[in-house]
Amino acid sequence: MRVVAGQYGGRNLRTLDGKLTRPTGDKVRAAMFSMIGPFFEGGRVLDLYAGSGGLAIEAISRGMSSAVLVERDRKAQAIILDNIEMTKESNKFTLLKMDAKRSLKQLSGPFDLVFLDPPYAKETVQNDISGLDNLQVLSDQVVIVCETDASVELPVVIGAFELIRQKRYGISKVTIYKRGDHD
Question: Does the keyword Transferase belong to this entry (predicted)?
Answer without folding.
Answer: yes
